[in-house]
Amino acid sequence: MLSWMTFAAAGLAVPPFLPEVIDWRLLVGAAIAAGLMVKRQWRSAAVAFFLACGYSAHYCEQRFAQLPPAGDMPTKAVFDALILGPIEEQSGYGRVYYRFDIQLAAGQCADGYCPAGRARYRVNYYGVRPPQAGTWARLTLRLRPPTGARSVGAFDYGQWLIANGYAGRGYAKAIMPIAGAEHAASIGVRYQQLRNRLLSQQREALVGLSRQGIMRALLYADRRDVSDEDWALLSRTGTSHLMAISGMHIGIVMAWGFVLARLLGAVLTRGGQGSVWLGPALGFALASAYAAMAGFTLPTQRALIMAAVLCVGLLLQRRISPWQGLQIALVLVLMRDPLALHSAGFYLSFVAVGVLLMLTMGVQSGQAAWRKLPLLQAQLLFVLLPVLAIWGFGSGVAALPANLVAIPALALVIMPVLFVALLAAWLGLPDFGLFSAANSLLKWLFNYLELLSQLPYWQPALSVLSILCLLLAAGLLLLPRGVLGRPLAVMFAGLALLQTPPSPPPGHVWVSVLDVGQGLSVLVQQGRRALIYDTGPSFSARYNSVDAVLLPLLRRRGIHRVDRLVLSHGDRDHAGAADRLVSAVPVKQVLSGEPERHRELAAKNCHFASPWLWDGVEYRFLRYSPSRDSKSNNRSCVLLIRAGDHRVLLTGDIERGIEAKLARNWPPEVALDMLLAAHHGSKSSSSDVFLRATQAEHVVFAASRFNTYGHPAKDVTERFQRLGSRCWQTGIHGSVHFEMTSEGMQLLRYDGKKRYFWQITPKDVCAVPYSGP
Q1: What is the distance between the alpha carbons of residues 459 and 226, in angstroms, rounded to a whole number?
Q2: φ, ψ for residue 494, nearest 5 deg
Q3: In 10 A of CB 76, how many CB atoms?
Q4: Cβ of 625: how many Cβ atoms within 10 Å?
Q5: Can you tell me the distance from the alpha carbon of 416 to that of 418, in angstroms, rounded to the nearest whole number?
Q6: How does pLDDT run across 341-375, given as a tens digit for each residue?
Q7: What gap in Å lies between CA 273 and CA 129, rounded to an integer?
Q8: Count of Cβ atoms closer than 10 Å to residue 602 Cβ
Q9: Average predicted confidence (pLDDT) for the chain
Q10: Which of 204, 267, 635, 765 is 20 to 30 Å from 190 at the Cα level?
Q11: Percent of the residues in the chain that have a pLDDT greater than 70, as a whole number
C-alpha cells in the first residue's frame, strides 16, 4: 500500500512544477502502457504514478483555463459574480478602498475571455460604499493574471494567489447588485450570508475590548482588525501561525471534541463505551464547524482532510498506522488541490506532523508527556528551520519560549473560553464575562510576547550550502537515540549559522534594479558596502516595498547596514518607503534631490555632494543645477558609477530638458554599459539627443507590468531598438542583476524567468513587441 501511494503522491507533485501544462491524455496513455508492459512487481507503482500525474495535469489545465489572457493590458470584462466575505477596508496612496473575493458564475464570456468553471478573484473596489458579502452582483472588472514581485527572497504574490485557488486579481470599476437572480438562493450564497451575519454580530459583541481583532482572527479567520504592531510582534516571536487558522487550530478543536465525547460517554453510558464512535464523530463535526466559521480556506480544507482520515480509521476500528494515515492524507490533499505544493503551509503542516510522529515513536501513553513537551518543541523547531529558511521565514531565540507558552495557552484556556462565550451568544444567553476573560488572557499573552521580542532574532542569509547543512542537521536529529552520528546535528547547524553569503570581490560592483511594482529601487553592492538608490513605494499601512522586496534581499546578502541612501526626489513611488528602511537598518548617510522633503531623515542635497571612491570605483552625481521652483522630477539625483571605462547611470525621473543639459556635457564617444531609463520609460524622457549621446548597451525600465501610465512608452522602446540596446522591464523580467568591473560589465541574471505554467515568458521589450506567452 505504501509503495503505490508513494508513487501516486509523486505523480501528483510533478505537473504543478512544470513550465508548461502537459496533455493529461498522454499520461493516461502512459498509465495504460505501464499496466500492460511493466513487470508485475512495479506495475501498480507505475500505473499509480502516471494516473496521478494525469489527474494533476488535468487539474492544472483547468486552472490555466481560468486565467485571464496574458497581454499587455488587463482584461476588461463585465461578469456576474458572488461577493465573498469578509469585506476588508484598506488604505493606500491616501485613498480608502475595499478588498474582497469574488467567484464568477460559470459559462460567461467577455473581451474574448471565457474562464473555465467558477474562477475566483481577489479584487479591490474604490467606491464610496462596500458591496454586501453573500450577494450576487454584476461587476465591471479589470482582471490581471496572478503576478507579484519577482525578486530573490521577496514574497511572490502571484504564487500565493495560485496556491490559494485564485485565477488572478484586479479591481472593480462598478458594482450593480442583481435582484432576483436564479442563483441568488444557492447554498453558497446562503452560507456566505450566514457567515457575514455572524461576523457582524461578533463585531458588535466585542466592541470595547482591546484584543477584539485577535479574538475575531481566532474565531473566524477575520484578521481585518489585527494591528500592524501585533503582526510585527507575532512575526518576531515566531507565533504568526497562531493567527492563521489551519492544522493546529483544527486539531485543537477536534481534540476538545474527543474530550467532550469522553465526558458524554461517561455520563450517558456505563464505562464510557459510547465514546468509541462518539469521539471521532463529535470531534470531526466540531472541526468542520470551525472550518466553516473560518470560510473553508484551503489550509482548513487540508486540515479537515487529515482529520477525516484519522476519524474514519477510528470509526471503522481499523488498524491504520500513523504513517499510513499521513500518507493517505497527503494523497487526498494533493488530489483536492495539487497546486497546494506552492504553499508554505502545506510543507509546514506535513513536515510538522511527520516530525512529531518520528520524535514520539516509542513513547508510551502512560508516560508524562508534558514533561517532554519543552524538548519536543525545541526539536520540532530545529527540524523546521530548513523549511522556514527555504520559504524566507526567520526564526529567533524567542520562538521556543513563545510557542511553549502560547500554544498550550490557546489550546487549553483561551480557545475553549472563546468558544463557550460564542456558543452562549448564539443561544441568546449572557456570556458571563467570558469574552472579557479571554481579552484579559490575550493581553497577558501579548505582554509576555512583548518581553520575548527583545531577544535576538535570526534571519538566515541563505545559500545552497547553508540549506544543505540545516537539512543534514535535521536528518541527524531524527535518527533513533543512541545512533553514533546523532550529535553531529549540532556541528552541521553551527556550519549553517557560520555560512556567509557571497559578496562582490574587490573591484567588482553588483547593481540590482529591483522589482518593486510601479516604483524604483536599486541596490548597489561593493564588498559589504551598500548604496541604495530609492526605496520604492509604500502601498499601504501593511505593505511596502522595503519589507516586501528590499529587506529580504539585504538579509540574503548579509548586508546589515546601508552606507548611503540616495532618494532621487520626493515622489512616493521613489521614496515612499524610506522611513521604513531607516527604521529597519542603520543608514550612515542620506542624500536627496529634494532634501526639504526628507528633513526627518537629515538628508543632504545630492546636487552639492562630492564624488567618492570605493576600492577604485567612482561614484559621482552629475551636475545640472536645478532651481527650487523646478518640478519634482527635474530635481532628481543623477548618479554615475564608473569602474575603469565602464559606466552605469541612474537617472531618477528627469525629463527632456535636463537630459538635454546632460547630453551637452557628455564626453564624446563614451557609451554607457547600463542606463536606468528616466521616469520609468515615460514619453516625457528618453529623448533622442540623450540616447544618442549615452549609447546604452543595457536599458532597464522600472515599471510594473500592468501600470496605468503605459510605461514604457512605445516611442521610447522604439528609440532604444533603433540604437540596438537590450531592454529589461522589472514588471516582466523581475529584478535584474548586473556585475561591473574595470574589465567589463555582464548580466548576472534576472529573477522573472518562467518557472511554472502560469507565468509569462519574458521577452526583450525593445527588440520584440511583447504580447504575452
Answers
A1: 24
A2: -65, -40
A3: 15
A4: 8
A5: 5
A6: 998 888 888 888 888 778 776 554 444 555 666 77
A7: 56
A8: 11
A9: 86
A10: 204
A11: 92
The C-alpha cell at 593 is 534631490
Residue 298: closest CA among 255, 343, 332: 343
Residue 737 amino acid letter: H
Query: Buried (b) or exposed (e) across 236-259, using 16+ Cβ within 10 A?
Result: bbbbebbbbbbbbbbbbbbbbbbe
pLDDT exceeds 90 at position 444: yes
Rounded distance, CA 676 to CA 166, Å? 34
- Sheet of 562-567: strand order equals 604-605, 587-592, 562-567, 529-535, 521-526, 509-513, 736-741, 744-750
Paired with 639 in beta bridges are 621, 650
Q: How far apart are CA 713 and CA 736, in angstroms?
A: 20
Per-residue pLDDT tens over the stretch 608-645: 999 999 999 999 999 887 766 678 999 999 999 999 99
Rg (CA), the chain: 29
Residue 716: the pLDDT is 94
Q: How far apart are CA 164 and CA 757, in angstroms?
A: 16
pLDDT for residue 770: 47
- Cis peptide leading into residue 86 (ω within 30°): yes
Question: For residue 273, what pLDDT is reported?
Answer: 52
pLDDT at 371: 61
164: three-class secondary structure by DSSP: coil
Cell of 450: 512583548
Higher pLDDT, 668 or 770: 668
Residue type, 281: A
CA separation, residue 140 to residues 82, 170, 177, 561 (Å): 13, 11, 12, 47
Q: What is the pLDDT of residue 231?
A: 84
Q: What is the DSSP string of 193-248?
A: HHHHHHHHHHHHHTTT-TTHHHHHHHHH---TT--HHHHHHHHHTT-GGGGS-SHH
